């Protein structure tokens, strides 16, 4: 028997703490959420925890609030991701430029990433205030007597939430794209230049294909974070006005902790989880197709 | 490129740098000036972008009435053990995953990393009930356990990637010299991993400071800074206690900005290392 065989248990002992911690705090509760989604746990209406089949799921179909939440979650994710990809790639290209301001720019760009979402969200709540916020103040410098109550109208509150999300997270996206940019060898560009390709053409024929795989794989994570985003809405709009910005995860929070209907909250959570699984499946399939 | 073209490009580079810097810094500058304005000026319309009067009243209120000092201490009591323990267990696990890479271990690794995609909101309520049974809600050990758990997938991924670049010959040499297994880990592997450990500690430190979800659900009495800022008392009739909020924002932001300035390169490397290989 070799030395390694005698110690087959050694790696398992080494990973035990990590497995225990993750198992206890994520895998076990996920299973519980799944089970709870089939039970009647509506404490306020006297639910005893008995199994009620798919009733929690059926209720979702006729719940207007779920429809609103679903609508905004989709809008938020799609719009935010589109801008993340376009502006993120642009910012990454700028960060990749060699010039004296590089270090300064890179430091500045890290600040939104490093600050707590709750600080950004709370500040934005005041920043978008119609009377005292700095957003209207700045616009007022260009347009006389400008006044607009951003967070009072559903549509503009949604725009404001997306803007803050972009401000906070595009830099992070860009840094990840930058990593891929740095892997492109410089001599490809030299060769293209000799062949007479313009820089715009070089971007589409060299840069973009080279970073596309990274962009797609980080987009999986960024899409997930958008779908499950909750802090920003919690901090900035508390889901309002008229539930217009209450994303699905915010709705889960309200059902589980305010309305004390754990079964129903679990059903929404399971749906959210399934949406994520489908999305990541689609994304992975897309990437496979892309790399072939 | 000819010189005029070069110069135009240079001007363009600086112009765009300034625009980006303004977009990022104006809101932060606005938070800062708000925190040192007396109340009369705070609600002046239009905004005084160069404040005429200064006061530290909001900061004094935060210390004397809101109790920001215990919040800072709580944040550190949770963050420091979290960083130490999570780094230690993640180095052990990453080593096992990388060096023993059997099929079953790789599967376990996949589950650990994949579990990062499970949103906290999906697990929150059952986890809360479970923690209640163990009387871990609102305790330091309970919070530290949850903070550690949040850091595990990313840390294991980064350390494992870094380890894969370290040749096994170095370890074999140590074995020949008669080093035992754990001696080898402590005296050979951990020193070699220093750059990776520094990077994840810096990034995880920021993540711990930013953590909001865990303390929101799993503690009531133990308040950390992020909870403190979201539960500030309203000193005036407005929707947001902007005087206190801006001051507290600054207290949180200033160390973060200084930290980012010092460790810019390390943080960049860490973020990029996590991205490329995931």
From TrEMBL, chain B:
TM ranges: 12-33, 72-95, 107-128, 140-163, 184-206, 244-263
Compartment list: Cell membrane
Keyword field contains Ribosomal protein: no
GO biological process: transmembrane transport
Stored InterPro entries: BP-dep_ABC_trans_perm, MetI-like, MetI-like_sf
Gene3D superfamilies, A to Z: MetI-like (1.10.3720.10)
Residue intervals of the ABC transmembrane type-1 domain: 72-263
GO CC terms, sorted: plasma membrane
Principal subcellular localisation of the protein: membrane
Keywords, ordered alphabetically: Cell membrane, Membrane, Transmembrane, Transmembrane helix, Transport
Topological relation to the membrane, as annotated: Multi-pass membrane protein
Protein name, as recorded: Carbohydrate ABC transporter permease
